[in-house]
L-threonine dehydratase catabolic TdcB
Amino acid sequence: MSYSTAQALRTVTLDDVRGARKMLSGVARMTAMEGSRHLSRAVAAPVHLKCENLQRTGSFKLRGAYVRIAGLLPEERAAGVVAASAGNHAQGVALASSLLGVRSTVFMPKGAPLPKISATREYGAEVRLHGQVVDETLAAAMDYAHETGAVFIHPFDHPDVIAGQGTVGLEILEQCPEVRTIVVGVGGGGLAAGIAVAVKALRPDVRIVGVQAAGAAAYPPSLAAGHPVSVRNPATMADGIKVGRPGDVPFGIVGELVDEVCTVTEDELSAALLLCLERAKLVVEPAGASPVAALLSRPGAFEGPVVAVLSGGNVDPVLMERVLRHGMAAQGRYLAVRLRLTDRPGALASLLGTLSAVDANVLDVSHVRTDPRLGLTEAEVELHLETKGPAHCTEVGQALRDAGYTVIG
């Protein structure tokens, strides 16, 4: 276990969550609850969005980090704290430490997005870049804690952290007292566990559904086995829930109080992020969009009113561009196609004319003439097109073939 047996088995109670809320007064915002007409129509039930992407530092992580650090003994505070994170937890620990006057050191992977590194430093932490993956970064942080006596602040595997995250659940019940289902993304399980503790104590009739990325879904096999098991090489764009093993403390709570844990695909995450941006006007990272992805993929599975927790909005602009393009492609609104044509004057203009006739908007054109795979009079063209849905994509492809073009991808 990550902590002593006594700590790991300590029950997180409603009183703990209420105490955490008092501690967070004036520190964490009571984030907005926004209705979504589009999602409500899609799932045939009222849907509300709990906007933790608008929390200070851009995610819910400040809540748990602050409660954990505030609960340290004076001698522990004097030794400072250390954390390992690729983003959200790093910023939460940095700001919480600054507010409490505690020195913080945060280890981040060398490949962490520059905006997240800069934000963590601006919140007051000393940032050390180490390792290529989070596991290497975590090991370095643990070594630092052992060498210096700094207190390691785990992102999810501690009762105080879970109690802090549980304050989201109290706010949901106040802002949407008629709620019947809460859908929340799950990585290590701290947020889902905290919400479950608060909500089930006050409203045991409310159904709580956790959501994991299919490529990093450690909870389903862990729940089946009855103990935390690891997923080798977790892979997902949703780095906020990219956790290979459930935490010992949250696992017990999730297993007891969370009604279901489901999974979503990368395409579903992309589509959900795009929907949040276009229809809700909210910038949400892929992990934060996972509850929306679950609603869209299983529209009849959730009794309303539904609250989807948008856990964070710290998305790297480079990833945002890729995800949006992927999301548009998944919806048939973006089409990449390669084809061969005769290399003669006016050939490209004729091709563009064919595309214009079917109302396909050309975003980008790449023209290759010198390639050993091509014949002497051939050229290869790669086109990126804005389209209007799957049916329109089919129409574009058929128009190109009818015009005599060889479509190769």
Residues 1-9 have pLDDT under 50 and may be disordered.
